[in-house]
What we know:
Helices cover 32% and strands 26% of the residues. The protein is built from 7 helices and 10 strands. Strands 6-7-8-4-9-10 form a 6-stranded mixed beta sheet, sandwiched between helices. Strands 1-5-2-3 form a 4-stranded mixed beta sheet, covered by helices on one side. It is globular, with a radius of gyration of 19 Å. This is ABC transporter ATP-binding protein. Residues 1-24 are annotated as: Disordered.
Amino acid sequence: MELARNRTSSTIPRHDSEPPPAAIHATGVERRFRRGRADVHALGPVDLDIAAGEFCCVVGPSGCGKSTFLRLIAGLLRPSAGRLEIRATAQNPAAMIFQDYGIYPWKTVLANVRFGLDVQGVPRREATKRARDWLSRMGLTDFADAYPASLSGGMRQRVSIARALAVEPEILLMDEPFAALDAQLRTILQEELLAICEADRRTVLFITHSLEEAIVLGDRVLVMSARPGRILAERVPPFGRPRSGDVRHSPECAELKAELWDLLRGEIEPAGGGGE
């Protein structure tokens, strides 16, 4: 088992015909854990390269190890086998956004967004300025002094996104961040995420159960098998950048959604299975 977090040069020479370097490189990655006396094989083996600047979406049945893989990349878990490399040049290689927001109820919106910067020791004046910049970009300026309990679900998720992006990570890890929101809010935040990520082209790994969401957002959609999760297939949505959410109404989106569902249909596990 190997977990490598490399700092690589941002000026690697390459020909225009060569693909961009991988920001995430996984070879034979597996994760097992104990459940009572049983050894549960939750994930893998997974072999995967995610290019720098790529928006990669992952879909799969519940319990297949999607979130486990994300936590391995974030460094919250360690692989049981294989090699996982995070190739980054920045001080903060990755930031993670959870489905349940993960913000602190006792901190104001401004303090929540500034939290990662405070932990890094960024001077308070600079940290506050960067946090306020992201509050402005996420439409939260008027709520800087509010507490999370007074916010809607969509606004709390905006706070979570702002906090993650304020530390300027090269890699953004998103674990079903819009799953708990109603359809209208989900659509709005998808549009906002598209705009943000297309502005700076950071690397994104996005976990979702929504096939439509994966197609609308992703440069590539990975389909995972039932537990232990492996990469079953990958598809490239036929939409360029910049992109708007209007692609969800296109016949190409409907066709690809049907194709992805056909791939997933045989992988749906009965209730009771599950990864970590």
